[in-house]
Amino acid sequence: MNQSITVIGMVLSATPIGEYDKRVVILTKEKGKISAFAKGARRQNSPLMGVTNPFAFGQFELYEGRTSYNVVQANITNYFMELSTDFEGAYYGFYFMEVADYFTKEYNDEREMLKLVYQSLRALASGNINRELVRYIFEMKTFVVNGEAPEVFRCANCGVGDRSMVFSSQNHGTICSECQGIAPDGIALSKAALYTLQYIASSTIEKLYTFKVSDEVLDEIRKVMQQYMDAHIDKKFKSLEILEMCLK
Ligand SMILES: [Zn+2]
Fold first, then answer.
1. Which of 2, 31, 56, 69 lies at 20 to 30 Å from 247 by C-alpha?
2. Average pLDDT of 17-26?
3. 229 alpha carbon to ligand 1 midpoint, in Å?
4. Per-residue pLDDT averaged across 63-88, rounded?
5. How far apart are CA 190 and CA 171, in angstroms?
6. Ligand 1 mean position to 157 CA, how many Å?
């Protein structure tokens, strides 16, 4: 007899299977990213219907079958309902789920990533911070959590920390004014933009979404993150394409 297990996690995605079922991907505290079958979850009166939608966060009881986990029941503590009536917010959220899915693995320790997606959805739902800023903070911190952070505290070439800096994806981080010749892709950074990148890199996840920036700094951070994402991720995220089409 297989036993059931209880995990804490968030539904990253749900795909319809057959007429009434779903396959869900859950990012869990205990087992990293897992895939589970939710039988009958698309039937109108199924208790699994709402609890297997993206963003649902809480406790999931799973039964380990021969080839896959099966969702038995769930106790959801946050559905992020604010986002269900908010197209733009929801698509930023779907984008975060896709990025998390891209970076995480089964049986890997993904607790920091789970915390990051949870806090990022909270920041979106609260509406207190510019959503584009939430996006770039989330992207940058995703690289940090996954050990792929760019250097932002000193020159990635000579190690000096107190000169003016440009950001260069080719050089995996900031390059000082003396070394700038090796960074043809360099993006000029104001002191405020450099400090913002340093704050995101070093802050705890709980304190990430506690600041605002000027439009000028947001422009700089946008250029940095677009360049860094393009250089490091070869996947096109569907939800981001939809979002960018709608924001134009
Ligand atoms: Zn240098």
1. 56
2. 96
3. 23
4. 93
5. 19
6. 5
Report the separation in Å between the CA atom of 33 and the middle of ligand 1, taken as the mean of its atom positions: 40
Structure tokens, 23: 């396959």
Mean per-residue pLDDT, 205-222: 97
Amino acid residing at 138: F
Asked whether the predicted pLDDT for residue 90 surpasses 90, the reply is yes
Q: How far is CA 168 from CA 12, 21, 87, 111, 225, in A?
A: 32, 47, 34, 30, 11
Do the bridges between strand 32-38 and strand 69-78 make them parallel or antiparallel, or are there none, so unpaired? parallel
Q: What is the pLDDT of residue 1?
A: 52
